[in-house]
Amino acid sequence: MATRTTSSRERILATAESLILQKGYVGTSIEDILDKAAITKGGFFYHFNGKIALAHALVNRYLEQDQQVFGELLARADSLSEDPLQRVLIFLNLLSEMVSGMTATHPGCLVAAFTYEMQQFDEETRQRMAEGVMEWRALMADRLAIVAERYPARIPVSIESLADMFASSVEGGIVLARVLDDNRALVGQVQAYRSHIRLIFDPSVALGAEASAPG
Fold first, then answer.
1. Class of the CATH-defined domain 1-49
2. Given CB 3.0 to 4.6 Å as the disulfide criterion, which of 84, 159, 163, 172 pairs with 140?
3. Could you give the CA distance from residue 151 to residue 87 in angstroms, rounded to a whole number?
């Protein structure tokens, strides 16, 4: 059960993330956060000694939440198939289903938003952001390496670059979804990445008209 202390800290973080995704880091003041979260200045500084400390906590929170969501989807995919390629394809479908089920447009990626204002952050926060990107790479690279062992790639491909493509597809899809106010744009990018994986590794997919067939 959350205590008042932990609940107020979470309220500050949730409010700050929402405001920063709308207005940017520089455009969001501590006063904006206090007003929206209904927190006193003393309450804010009880948890964070300033805006940089808040930024570091926000990055950690966002990456931990991402790790939990992806971990749960991967675990479910693993429970549905023993085939490494099918596990990756199922994971991408589950991610698409999760986004499709959202009642509002995806709010955006905090780490991506922070990259546009990188100079505003201390080295510790920038390093944590870099670590987060590497964690996203490892998430897919480990899986794709196992896929490649069983299903040799049809064309020369870098597993790391292919793993990075997952992050860029998701991040790019989030941008499109926000601009178009339509989560289907994000779903489309995830599914396009899924099709790319199939074309590279799935021996049952013909390289021609049949390549676009669902699987």
1. mainly alpha
2. 163
3. 13
